[in-house]
Amino acid sequence: MSVIVHTGPVMNSSxxxxxxxxxxxxxxxxxxxxSRPEALQHMQKNLDIYEEQAARAxxxxxxxxxxxxxxxxxxxxxxxxxxxxLETIPDPQQESWNPCTEPGRYNNTEVLQRLSCMARxxxxxxxxxMADLQPCPLKTDPSSSCPPDGHWQFNTNVVFSSxxxxxxxxxxxxxxxxxxxxxxxxxxxxTFETPFAGKFGLMICFDMLFHDPTIALVEKGVRxxxxxxAWLNALPLLDSVQFQRAFSLGANVTLLAANLRNNRRDMRGxxxxxxxxxxxxxxxxxxxxxxxxxxxxxxxxxxxxxxxxGTTVExxxxxxxxxxxxxxxxxxxxxxxxSATFVSSMLDDPFTFxxxxxxxxxxxxxxxxxxxxxxxxxxxxxxxxxxxxxxxFAGTHTLFGRCAVQVCALVxxxxxxxxxxxQGVEEAESKMDFTLEGKFGTRYVYPSVLASKLVLEQPEHLxxxxxxxxTMRHSNMTGGLxxxxxxxxxxxxxxx
Length: 496
Prior knowledge:
Mean pLDDT: 91
Distance between the termini: 42 Å
Number of strands: 24
Strand order of the largest sheet: 13-14-17-18-24-20-21
Order of helices and strands: EHEHEEEEEHEHEEEEHHEEEEEEEEEEEE
Low-confidence stretches: 1-11, 310-337
């Protein structure tokens, strides 16, 4: 995919980032506990691949390299069967430790040592995800979250500086279904500083959909986020690269996203995103199941660091993300015709839909008091018939944990029956010029345009009005439209 390179002062404050989508070598029988030597033997196979990729990234000038969630050991473990894979990771906020140069300080830290030496050998910051064992005091206090066996197991990001020092440790707060890990007693808001780009924040996979730690980091002014993930694609709204891109745009941040590659679980799609560029890879069905290294030069977005270096990229952000484009359908009627609505399931949520049954026009659809408006002109390609619908949902999404949303989504239906609207589909032929609009009750609205074969398109124009109305305009598509979506997250309503 193309990289947008900005000329002028921006290049004075940029850095080279790399993410690796890893085809993880799995334990064939993850429910059977392994001894520590057996677990190490398995992990070293994945770490050997990490080592090769670190060398390749360094050759391409990378200063930071991100590996995916679960990439060192895989998945499908139980709470007990993962025991041989656990290492106790010291808190870098409490002590300074370089596992590569001080390997004898702690026992059973072979993975930490290997990662530390990798960072040191290739002179780059390394972010990896591993399993952490932390002892906890067994209190008689019934409110204590300490498990009965006296230790916690955490899904954990570790960060090593380019000399091998352990500089950050983050425990995943929002666990997905059936993880062999514990939820930390409190969400951790973890950042680390780099000499080349200032501050980065840490999150893992499912965290992206929730306020803590993700939005807590953004609200603290952290503009560069590191994102190891093992994401199961969920079209038509939550495909990996679709939501990674949408999050980067909606939160106005850089996102370094490294996913696993596993065809059986439909894990694929990684990228390096800024508010004005995307370098990503999304495997197509039938492509060989293999890893992929992505490297891109990106501008520094840390406002403090940029201020110190005497340059700013803020102007680029604002002008890029609100570039104007003429409305696609000047001749559309000002009063949209009334159309019959219907309800169909999209990711288990009951969306209210209206069909697009003309070549051009305007449609409105409401779910309760939340309404979406679409102005469109459609360009059918080839001879195939395709059904499109505009859908909306406002309420609590429950399929993958509870989260309150307001969504406007223009989707290609999987078939020609209205019951297929909301089902996932990967190819489309009809191109579309459109303006999609909704009045949201949150400032966190994530926009996406996903084209045929899971290609991302950068919306031509995005605008948020003072009253919460978000407008996304796009034209001149390179491929057929799969989904155009405004995904609003009502974080404040999650626990109601």
